[in-house]
Amino acid sequence: MSDVGEEVRGISPEGAGRSRHSQARLVFVRGGGTTVLSRQVVPYPFHITRPFRMYPDHPDIATLYLQSASGGLYRADRLGLDITARPGSRAHVTTQSATVVHDTGAFAARQDTRLAIAGDAGLALHPDPMILFPGAALDLDTRIVVGPDARAIVSEGFASHDPTGMGRPFARIGLSLRIETEEGRILVNERSTLDGASLAGPASPLGTYAAYGSMAILGGVEGHPDIAALQGAADAVGCLCGASPLPNAAGLAVRVLAPSGGALSTAMDAVFAVAFEALFGVAPARRRK
Q1: Separation of alpha carbons 70 and 100, rounded Å
Q2: Has residue 10 got a pLDDT over 50?
Q3: Do the bridges between strand 172-181 and strand 130-132 make them parallel or antiparallel, or are there none, so unpaired?
Q4: Which residues pair with 158 in a beta bridge?
């Protein structure tokens, strides 16, 4: 996973002015009957809490809040997050709130996420949605390496918001996901780019919906949540959800459409709860925000 730092440090757009190039690294291991954080490199603007033990009957699950010490993502920011889950560990990583992406001008912000989940490990990465301000351009690149019998839930989402109330769109968002085995076999490789003006127009590919979320649920078929239950969780809060198998029996792909960022957050939490209980054997504890 060492290539992430080189990618983050190696991008320096000419004329971008001051920007942040920063990478956080977290390593979870199994020890003493629970999951512990054996290594942490958390430079500004990243900040983390101590791991919480929120499941008395499942002490092997650790919950960690990933926080930001700044006001969001800005012009030409390059942030990286590298999480490793060693064999037998069980970790749930979440955020304290949505992340705002400000007007980036000609230089998009970028966030690279690299996850390595060993055999018999479980990782749930469930951040709050991104909030894209007018003029914001953002690239989200996620790469996941899974070992045998690894289980994971990885989600992301975004919504557009104009603080002035004028309905000005964000610039664009690029989404990239690659999932591969420890031997390097690519299971899933997908990319998409969405233009803010197109999403705000009458021919928006999202239709009447204003926010979008996705979730990859990875692991053996026996641990997959029921697709009807996933869809029902989103329907119950007024959102639209679709789920289908990923290529190469990698898991399930879930897509959620919502009328607003707040509704998206609620729906993604509801869908996540169904997936988490299926993969981890317990309903997720209420997260205090």
Answers
A1: 10
A2: no
A3: unpaired
A4: 130, 212
* Better-predicted residue by pLDDT, 3 or 174: 174
One-letter amino acid of 271 = V
Position 18 scores a pLDDT of 61
Instruction: Please state, in angstroms and rounded to a whole number, the distance separating the CA atoms of residues 37 and 27.
Output: 6
Number of alpha helices (DSSP H) and beta strands (DSSP E) in the chain:
4, 17
Tell me the pLDDT of the chain averaged across its residues: 90
Residues 246-263 have a mean pLDDT of 95
Q: pLDDT-based confidence at 241, cuts 50/70/90?
A: very high
Q: What is the DSSP letter of 270?
A: H
Task: Tell the burial category of 167 from Cβ atoms under 10 Å away from its Cβ (0-12, 13-18, 19+).
Answer: exposed
Is there a contact between 181 and 251 (Cβ–Cβ < 8 Å)? no
DSSP assignment of 195-212 equals: EHHHHHSTT-TTTT--EE
Domain ranges (residues) in the chain: 3-8+19-203
- What token pair was written down for 262? 């707040």
Task: Report the pLDDT value the prediction gives residue 202, as an integer from 0 to 100.
Answer: 86
If you search the block for the tokens 């942030």, which residue do you land on? 79
CA distances for 272 relative to 60, 101, 130, angstroms: 19, 24, 17
The DSSP bridge pattern shows strands 90-95 and 122-126 to be parallel
Three-state DSSP string of 88-146: CCEEEEEECCCEEECCCCCCCEEEEEEEEECCCCEEEEECCCEEECCCCEEEEEEEEEE
Spatial distance between the Cα atoms of 96 and 265, rounded to a whole number of angstroms: 12
Give the pTM.
0.90
